[in-house]
Write a structure and sequence with these properties.
The protein is 66% helix and 0% strand. By secondary structure, it is mainly α. It contains 16 helices and no strands.
C-alpha cells in the first residue's frame, strides 16, 4: 500500500522492522531516491542517497544540483559545508562557486568569500584580500582568537600572503594591527595579552623580507621598546626585562633605533636611581642589562657621529658612573 502511494521512506522503515529481504529494501531505498530527485528535492535526495549508500556517481548528480540551489538561495555557508560533506568535484560547480565568491565579497561576507577562494583555488590576490578584510573586522571587534584562526588558515602575515593583499587593504591592516592590537594593549598594561597573542600568531618567529610586512614588524618592536621604557620609568624592572626577553629587543633582527631607545631608557633609569641614592636598585638595573660604564671624552656618547651596532649582551668597562656612557663592545663605523 505504501509503495503504491509512493511513500517509500516509510515503506523502508517497515521493511527493515519486519526483516524484508535486502533486495526489496534496496529497491525501496532507490525508489525514494528517484522520487525525491523527480520532485527536485535535491538536497534531501543527496542526503538520503549518502545515508543509504547509493552509488556516489548518482548521489553526486543530485548533490551538485543541491549545491547550485543553495547558492541561488544565498545560503553560502550551508552550500560550502554541503560541498565539503559530499566531496564534490570543484570543476563541475566551478562557475557557481565563483558566483558565490563574488557575491560574498560584494556583501562584505569576507570570511566566506576567502573560504570559497581557497576551496576552489580562485584568485590568490582576491582571496588574500578577503581574508585580510575579515582580519581588519576582527581587529575592530578585538577578536584575537579569530585573527589567529584566520592566520593559520590563510597565512596572511607571511611574505607571500602579505604581498598578495590589495595595497590599500594591506596598509589599513598593518596600521590597525599595530594601533589596536599592540599599542592599545600596551597602553592598558596588558603586555601578557600581547605576548600570548603574538606567540599564537608566530609572527616574530617568521623570516620576513617583504618590506611592508617588515615595516609593520619593526613598528611592533618600536612599540615594545616604548612600553619597556615606560615600565622602567615606573620602576617596574621585572616587567621591562620580560618585554626585552620576549621581543629580543637587543637581538640582531631588531632595528638599530629600537636598540638605542632601549639602552637609553635603561641608562636614564639607572641615572635617576643614582640621583636618589638608590644604589641597590641601580645595581639591579646594571646587572639586568649587563651594562657597565666608562668615562670618556666630551665628544663621545651613546649615539655619536658614528652608528653603533648592538650585540645581545652589552659589555662595558666600569669606571666613573658620573661620566659619559658608551657601548664599547661590538662598535663599528658606517
Amino acid at each position: 500500500v505504501l509503495k503504491s502511494k509512493k511513500k517509500y521512506k516509510k515503506a523502508v522503515e517497515i521493511a527493515r522492522k519486519f526483516g524484508s529481504s535486502k533486495i526489496e529494501i534496496e529497491n525501496l531505498i532507490y525508489l525514494e531516491f528517484k522520487e525525491l530527485f523527480k520532485n527536485r528535492n535535491y538536497k534531501e535526495a543527496a542526503e538520503w542517497g549518502l545515508e543509504n549508500k547509493i552509488s556516489k556517481s548518482e548521489v553526486d548528480i543530485v548533490a551538485e544540483k543541491a549545491f547550485i540551489n543553495l547558492i541561488k538561495e544565498q545560503r553560502y555557508q550551508e552550500a560550502l559545508s554541503f560541498f565539503e560533506r559530499f566531496d564534490l568535484h570543484p570543476e563541475r560547480v566551478f562557475d557557481n562557486a565563483v558566483n558565490a565568491f563574488n557575491r560574498c565579497f560584494k556583501k562584505r561576507l569576507y570570511l566566506l568569500s576567502a573560504m570559497y577562494g581557497k576551496k576552489f583555488k580562485l584568485s590568490e590576490k582576491r582571496t588574500l584580500t578577503a581574508a585580510a578584510l575579515e582580519t581588519i573586522n576582527s581587529i575592530e571587534e578585538n577578536n584575537l582568537d579569530k585573527i589567529i584562526r584566520l592566520e593559520k588558515e590563510f597565512n596572511i602575515f607571511s611574505d607571500n600572503g602579505f604581498s598578495l593583499i590589495d595595497n590599500t587593504t594591506r596598509e589599513i591592516l598593518a596600521e590597525n594591527f599595530v594601533k589596536n592590537l599592540i599599542n592599545k594593549n600596551f597602553e592598558e598594561g596588558k603586555e601578557n595579552l600581547v605576548i600570548s597573542f603574538l606567540e599564537e600568531l608566530e609572527l616574530l618567529n617568521k623570516k620576513i623580507t617583504y618590506e611592508p610586512l617588515l615595516e609593520m614588524l619593526n613598528s611592533i618592536y618600536y612599540s615594545a621598546a616604548i612600553y619597556h621604557n615606560s615600565c622602567l620609568k615606573k620602576g617596574d624592572v621585572s616587567r621591562a626585562k620580560h618585554i626585552i626577553e620576549f621581543f629580543e629587543l637587543l637581538g640582531d633582527e631588531v632595528p638599530y633605533n629600537v636598540k638605542t631607545m632601549v639602552i637609553n631608557g635603561a641608562i636614564d633609569y639607572h641615572n635617576e636611581l643614582l640621583k636618589k641614592l638608590n644604589y641597590n636598585e641601580a645595581k639591579k638595573v646594571k646587572d639586568n642589562y649587563n651594562i657597565q660604564f666608562s668615562k670618556l671624552g666630551e665628544n663621545v656618547g651613546i649615539v655619536g657621529a658614528s652608528s653603533i651596532v648592538f650585540d645581545n649582551i652589552f659589555d662595558l668597562e666600569s669606571s666613573n658612573i658620573a661620566g659619559h656612557y658608551i657601548i664599547k663592545k661590538k662598535i663599528s663605523r658606517t
